[in-house]
Amino acid sequence: MREHAPVYRHPFGFWLLTGYEDVSWLLRAGLSVEDRNVAADNPLREMREVTYGDQMPRFDGRSMLDRDPPDHTRLRRLVSKAFTPRAIEALRPQVAGLVDGMLDAMARARHVDLIESLAFPLPFAVIAKMLGTPSSDHERIRELTGIVVRSLEPVADPDLVSAIVAADGELAGIAAEMIAWKRENPADDLLTALINAEDEGDVLDEDELIAQTLLLYIAGHETTVNLIGGGTLALLRDPGQLALLHDDPGLVANAVEEMLRYDSPVQASRRITLEPVTVGGVEIPAGAFVMASLASANRDERFWGPDAAELRLNRENARQHVSFGAGPHHCLGASLARMEAAIAFERMTARFPRLAPDGEVEWNGRINLRGPARLPVSTG
Ligand code: HEM
């Protein structure tokens, strides 16, 4: 598609951009992210209305990810007051401790599923710890967020639709309870900071607080799992690159950027045009739903050169990937994800230089938050 139809109108009515320059432009162009702006006669909008009817997931549309200015600006500013670079940096020793504990368990077991042993529990434990949520809720939250993220994709199975609606309601209830509890038991954590976040007298109201808390919870682990899982898989498939990282641990920061580029943990972002725009010489009308394929932009030979499809941990411009998006919605958690992944890969490759595949990879079956669901490895 990059070659023949880089700006493509799908018969279902949405547009798909696959080239690096077009995708970068779209993300930075300040277009809308609010679904209500999709033209009423767009088949995609009808599909969603038919799927959910009046049971649209409750917090769908209330997080900053789904809001345009001025709401986006104010939500992002308030959350940024709590989710600061300092708060993230302060977690470094705890992240290292968590990784070491998980690697110890992997060393003892020798044959493990990397997703269950490290890629999932690490980001989940980190965001849960950061928010300061009671651990009795964690197992249920894990199950529910796994269901709710399916609402980011077209769903046909009516049982799954009901499950998404139910999970969405239950999660919102758990978040409301957590917030009420935290108001009574404030602590030095992100949830307390969100509750108290204030900008010239402006604060997050109850629904906004619930929506931003759930966004951080979900974005905090359902993405980084794919970076650690997909990155490990890429290394296992290319032992020369694994050896390179083992021999030169200083490469780890760039290696993480290259893993992000090579296998995008979030495959696509979407925007909605409020007026006609011209991209790559093609005019897209107002009210169009436009998907930007981050994964494809990250492999565009025209930008990255002829080795775009290869993993090169020392690629000089790896950091120019678009895996964290770009422009006004650029990922707020990018530095947290980078830190978790760098610590995990540095310690894992130092400890298990002979890490090897140990069975079939299973994929999670998701279109957007795509990654391995099971990755059997032997620690050597
Ligand atoms: C936004 C990717 C980890 C919080 C985004 C966007 C992308 C992304 C592509 C922009 C979506 C758009 O333009 O429509 C990733 C990837 C991650 C990751 C690949 C891990 C490898 C995290 C973490 C957190 C987080 C750990 C927080 C704990 C957010 C938030 C937004 C966001 C709050 C919304 C920003 C806004 O709308 O202004 N992320 N993310 N992300 N991410 Fe991440």
TrEMBL record:
Keywords: Heme, Iron, Metal-binding, Monooxygenase, Oxidoreductase. Pfam families: p450. SUPFAM superfamilies: Cytochrome P450. The keyword Glycoprotein does not apply. Belongs to the cytochrome P450 family. This is Cytochrome P450.
